[in-house]
Amino acid sequence: MKKNIIISLMALWLPLLASAQLTLDIRVDSIGKLADQLPDSIRFKVAELKVSGPLNGMDLKLLQQIVNRSKVNKKETGECLVTKVDLSEAVITADKAGIVTRDAELPANQFSGAKNLTELVLPSRLVAIGNAAFKGCESLKAIELPDMLTAIGYSAFEGCSNIEELKIPAGVTFLGNSTFDGCKNLTNIELPKNLIKFGSSVFKNCSRLQQVKLEGSFTAIGDNAFLGCSVLSDIKLPADVKTIGDHAFEGCKSLDAIELPDALTKIDDHAFEGCASLKHIVIPKRVKSLGSDAFSGCTSLDSVVIEGLIPELEDDVFRYCHSLRMVTLPMSIKKIGSNAFEECMSLSAIKLPVSLTSIGSSAFRKCVTLQEIIVPSAVREIGGDAFRECSSLTKADLSVSLRSIGGSAFAKCVSLKEVNINTPTVPKISKSTFKGVIQGVCHFYIPRGSKPLFQADKTWSKIALIER
Q: What is the set of domains in the chain, with CATH numbers?
């Protein structure tokens, strides 16, 4: 009877033992020997794995095959996915077998796509992490970076959406493009003081990142560097930064202040677009280029001071800055681009520089509190819709050099009472240029002796003109 009971219990236990997830601590004495320690019978039944000793490309390729699996074979009893890896006592050596390796460097794509991996300890002597080494490790929460690390490659942690905090060792001087792109739960990161390169999209879509202190001698904030960091409220830029790239801070909705370094020379397109909490900005003296949409949609922006001698305001640069009240423009500006101040609804006054020669289409469209505009004497062209629906505009003093006023340029300026045409040469207009301006209420003044010229023009002849 006892024998039958024991046999029955063994029949129950054996399947359970076979299906148990293994925790292994393996030591190899020479390169290329990991496969001997992980035979086919167990290598896909390991949940937690520690590997010590020298590893070459063949060893790392086997490790990659084991750790990066995303599915188990349900027909194989006991198969599981790896959740924890400890390589703290492993040493990566240069080799061309399997995966090409270099001494003390983790190869590119080593653990890319290991979706079940939650914890990882890297070799203590590691100096570099290859491109996309952990890309898509969406369950990875804890990783310890070794003190000897000096470089982190492109997309190294891209899509590691569960990492919450990370300390980058002091020796790291290089952060590649998209290093932490999509680390959506990253709230705290400690960066080294000696960075010499800060790539594009480094913290793109890190939607819980609150503050960053950047230090080092690098000169550029790359494109998309902090794009979509919607709760980022505090950032300090290094003194040597000369360029802020395209979309660098776009969508940083909680950023209410930023001090731009004196060394800055260029702000690229969409750099601060949608920074809805930003209130004040001073653009330093060395800035020579301010890109299109640079501050578009900064709905809380109250004041702008441009100290740099920029030649033009690009299209849409301050578009939809609904709270913008004060703008100080440099004397160097020759062109205001299309939609540059469109829907700046709080802008009641602006002094245009004497160097200005062109005002683009819709440049001040729907600036509904703008009361008066003096167009500098060198302006030759006012684009279509330039001041359309500026419903509080009462006076427009136009330039002596004016040659063209575009269609609907002053359309629906229902409060307009005085337009001074200062050029003796009849500027070209269309039927819609002053459409919606109330005739009889608004007076159009032209230079003395020029009335015959204006009346000879079919469009101007339909407007009541007064010489003075």
A: 355-468 (3.80.10.10)
- Evaluate the CA torsion angle 17, 22, 27, 33 in order and state its sign: positive
Taking the C-alpha atoms of residue 203 and residue 314, their distance in angstroms, rounded to an integer, is 27
Instruction: Check: CB of residue 427 under 8 Å from CB of residue 450.
Output: no
**Both structure tokens of 17:** 């033992």
Q: Contact, 261 vs 284, CB < 8 A?
A: yes
Least confidently predicted of 156-160, 187-191, 321-325, 346-350 = 187-191
Indicate the helix (H) or strand (E) that contains 11.
Answer: helix 2-19
The count of other CB atoms within 10 Å of the CB of residue 237 is 18
Round to whole Å and give the CA distance between 373 and 320: 19
Type of residue found at 132 = A
- pLDDT, position 20: 59
Q: 211-213 and 142-144: which strand pairing?
A: unpaired
| pLDDT (tens digit per residue) in 73-106 | 878 888 999 999 999 999 999 999 889 999 999 9
Does the CA dihedral 23-27-30-31 come out positive or negative? positive
As a whole number of Å, the end-to-end CA separation of the chain is 126
Residue 354 is classified by DSSP as T
